[in-house]
Design a protein that fits this description.
heterotrimer, A alpha+beta, B alpha/beta, C alpha+beta, B: alpha/beta, TIM Barrel, eight-stranded mixed sheet, 5 helices, 26% helix, C: alpha+beta, Sulfite Reductase Hemoprotein, domain 2, Sulfite Reductase Hemoprotein, domain 1, 21 strands, 38% helix, globular
Chain lengths: 120, 165, 552
């Protein structure tokens, strides 16, 4: 399964696609099946929203006991916040969605963003 | 036809481009022409001897010193920015003005954007083919943003330490 | 210190206005993100994992109390109440909003601060010895030259779109506190045999994917010819540096490809065509800048202080602080005080807004209104009277700024890493904390002595791991964070690149590995050898065996 993420232009906040809107909590995001054309279509629609968000891309997600979580460690950090300061970032809200990501194990490199390192 | 902006006596004006940019595979048309360096080296002499106005288009990886002996007879040198981040044309422009003494038109072509106007002017460009639809007024605004400059360029602006003196 | 005059202030105001317009155009959609990105980078604004990060320039690491208080204000008002001091003497704020960045630049400009060219393919902050003007061992004040370079390089019209970033460091003391030999240009002030002041010019050092110790391309450059020579180097680089591959675009690649001699020849050839009257700074300007750094009005004090000596005798904790964090000053009765931002449970290099205010107050009252940032992510009060040290110490201690570990094992350099940085492969902060906590015992830390651990979360090496006595590089191994250790690096005048010790290991194993390295060192060290010296003498083998003794 996949989700679509980006950063909001005005403040850099990590956001996720939900039916054409951008929301802040990963738990509320729209999830796409891997072979669902709706995923790439959403990316195209997002690319046209260049005054709202920056760099949209699909990420791999995995179902964990408490709920869904991004597969890659990097995307978990984006969905939660920095590990050196638990009161900063989205993790400070707490709740089931945050708990699910915190409890997720078995991270792997996300196939949705293999060109990470080559940017800049 | 993209707008051409020329800097004439401190003012930025829209200008008609009297030159034809000639691609290597094209036949040389009548009137003033801009040729690639290779094309110029092949037929430039003949055109100039025939009284034609000739300009040369220099790519970012071509050395402007190659034109040293021909500059007095050239009307224009066009320096290409293949991408705005390729800053080699700034050096080329500056060398044309300050080392090679070129007094003809130095034109910025390619990925030429308003936000780099200030740098271009200071390196000695005096004409611009903007790729972003900038008007002369917008170009002038961007180029004139800084009341002071810290170092010498190829323009006439006095660096800050001369203002202080 | 250099005071901005009306012209410098107008420049910052124009720059802030320019950026405000550019942000407006981006928000309105008149320019694309691709066109906007270099513009915001040239004002130090990165898009990171959680938010924008703003890197504010601290020219050659020098601040006054007014400026430090403004940084605290920015941290409180626009961020989450803290900032991070970097390995290039700058400060970064991690939680910035693009929409507020123009206001922030305005507020910085008010106190002569800015974020000009702290990112982008241009000349970055020119660093200098953080002990400048305070240490007895400097040939000349390197800040004079860093300030000269700062002005010359600011919005340089020819060199603002280089193949890649460009970093210059200036040092003037026998001990190099700037890592000059791993900079694009390192400038080492020296006197030649005739006693004339000049620079040894080192070009092509660097870290990152392909580290190099830079070769010396000119042994003695008369100081009055600095700007023309820099122009020659930059022009050769701008014309011939690679633009086809960002991993091969630094000047170090060009210098290595041409070879030192050919590169130097090209620079000298270009330099010979420059007219010094046009290209170099006039003597009047040099004198003006130098005048800004003229020796301050130090008091005539005795070399020893009864108050200082009594406090050391009475309080072992203060004595420990004095041993590790206080360094000799050129003036009798004064000292250089290093403020560690490496409390064992804290994030290396971070300071809270409250802590910044404490440092500002101490700088104003006890350090002639002068505070410095080091490239090892610590701060310095350069001019403190020995008499005042007990008071300063007490204030630092109350603010959690008195960790007595400068240069010791827990004085770790760590980049922000994957907790913050979009470029990272692994986290660096928790590794630093796990090591610092394992070696929390102050007696043990002093027994071990000087040991510089440097941690980078990716190959870009912002944590300077290539020049760590122990360098640690975080890598992503199939989604798991792994750490590769290397030994024997140094960023000082005896510069060397660390060599890889062996296969990477998971995070939990790192403190044990460090322990094994330390124990090995303690068991084989001779005389006064530092960890680095023992590694150089004994080689990698005993250390490798200790860490990898059990197969894993």
């Amino acid at each position: 399964m996949k989700a679509l993420t980006a950063n909001r232009l005005i403040d850099g906040e990590v956001v996720f696609w939900k039916s054409g809107q951008w929301i802040e909590r990963f738990a509320d995001a729209q999830f796409f099946a891997d072979d669902d054309a709706a995923g790439p279509e959403a990316v195209q629609a997002a690319l046209a929203q260049s005054r709202v968000i920056v760099e949209p891309y699909l990420i791999d997600i995995v179902e964990a006991p408490g709920g869904w979580a991004p597969v890659s460690y990097r995307e978990r950090l984006r969905a939660l916040g920095p590990t050196n300061e638990p009161t900063h970032g989205k993790q400070a809200e707490g709740g089931a969605g945050v708990e699910a990501i915190l409890a997720a194990t078995g991270a792997a490199r996300s196939t949705g963003r293999v060109d990470l390192i080559r940017r800049k | 036809m993209p707008t051409l902006i020329r800097l004439i006596e401190g003012r930025y004006e829209a200008a008609e481009d009297v030159f034809t940019d000639v691609a290597d595979e094209d036949v040389t048309p009548d009137g003033p022409v801009i040729l690639s360096l290779a094309r110029f080296q092949a037929e430039g002499d003949a055109l100039i001897s025939a009284g034609r106005k000739v300009g040369v288009r220099i790519q970012s990886d071509e050395e402007v010193e190659t034109l040293a002996y021909d500059l007095p007879r050239l009307a224009l040198v066009a320096l290409v920015f293949p991408k705005y981040r390729d800053g080699r044309a700034y050096t080329s422009a500056r060398l044309l003005r300050q080392r090679l003494g070129f007094t003809g038109e130095v034109r910025a072509v390619g990925d030429v954007l308003r936000e780099q106007a200030g740098f271009m002017v200071r390196c000695g460009f005096d004409s611009f083919a903007p790729a972003d639809g900038s008007t002369p007024a917008e170009w002038a605004h961007a180029a004139g943003r800084f009341r002071h400059v810290y170092q010498r360029g190829a323009d006439a602006r006095a660096p800050v330490f001369e203002e202080r003196a | 210190m250099y005071r901005y005059d009306a012209i410098d202030k107008e420049f910052l105001a124009d720059r802030a206005n320019e950026f405000r317009e550019q942000v407006g155009r981006r928000l309105a959609g008149s320019i694309t993100e691709d066109q906007f990105k270099p513009l915001r980078l040239m004002n130090g604004l990165y898009l990171q994992l959680h938010a924008y990060m703003l890197r504010v320039a601290v020219p050659y690491g020098s601040l006054d109390s007014r400026q430090m208080r403004r940084l605290a204000h920015i941290a409180r008002t626009y961020d989450k109440g803290y900032g991070h001091f970097t390995t290039r003497q700058n400060i970064q704020f991690n939680w910035i909003k693009l929409g507020q960045a123009p206001d922030i630049l305005d507020q910085l400009a008010d106190v002569d601060l800015h974020a000009i060219q702290t990112s982008g393919n241009c000349i970055r902050n020119t660093t200098a010895d953080p002990f400048a003007g305070a240490t007895a061992e400097e040939i000349d004040d390197p800040r004079v030259w860093s300030e000269l370079i700062r002005q010359w390089s600011t919005l340089h019209p020819e060199f603002s779109f280089l193949p890649r970033k460009f970093k210059i460091a200036v040092t003037a003391a026998a001990k190099d506190r700037t890592a000059a030999r791993v900079h694009d240009i390192g400038l080492v002030l020296r006197r030649n045999r005739a006693g004339e002041l000049g620079f040894e010019v080192i070009v092509g050092g660097g870290q990152g994917r392909t580290p190099y110790i830079g070769p010396t391309i000119r042994e003695h450059l008369p100081v009055g010819r600095l700007l023309s020579y820099l122009e020659a180097v930059l022009r050769v680089y701008n014309r011939h540096g690679r633009r086809d591959n960002i991993y091969k675009a630094r000047i170090k690649i060009l210098v290595a490809a041409l070879g030192r001699d050919e590169f130097a020849r090209q620079v000298e050839e270009e330099w010979s065509k420059l007219d010094s009257a046009l290209a170099d700074a006039p003597d009047t300007e040099l004198a003006r800048i130098r005048g800004a750094f003229t020796p301050l009005n130090f008091e005539a004090l005795p070399a020893t202080s009864a108050a200082f000596d009594a406090a050391r005798a009475a309080d072992p904790a203060f004595a420990r602080f004095a041993r590790n964090n206080v360094k000799p000053h050129k003036k009798a009765g004064y000292a250089i005080v290093e403020i560690s931002l490496k409390a064992h449970h804290a994030t290396p290099g971070d300071a809270s807004a409250d802590q910044m205010d404490v440092v500002a107050d101490l700088a104003q009252r006890y350090s002639l209104d002068d505070v410095r940032v080091t490239h090892e992510q610590n701060l310095v009060l350069p001019h403190v009277k020995l008499d005042d040290l007990p008071t300063v110490y007490a204030a630092l201690q109350a603010a959690g700024l008195a960790t007595p570990n400068i240069g010791l094992i827990s004085d770790i350099i760590a980049c922000p890493g994957l907790d913050y940085c979009a470029l990272a492969n692994a986290r660096a902060i928790p590794i630093a904390q796990s090591i610092a906590q394992r070696f929390e015992d102050a007696d043990r830390a002093e027994l071990i002595g000087e040991l510089k651990i440097k941690i980078s979360g990716c190959i870009n090496a912002c944590g300077h791991h290539h020049v760590g006595n122990i360098g640690i590089l975080g890598v992503d191994k199939k989604g798991e964070e792994f750490y590769q250790l290397s030994l024997g690096g140094s960023g000082q005048e005896d510069a060397s690149l660390a060599q890889i010790l062996g296969p990477g290991m998971s995070a939990e194993k790192v403190p044990d590995a460090i322990e094994a390295l330390v124990d090995t060192y303690l068991s084989i060290r001779q005389g006064e050898e530092r960890f680095l010296d023992t590694v150089r003498r004994a080689g990698m083998a005993p250390f490798k065996e200790a860490v990898y003794a059990d197969a894993h």
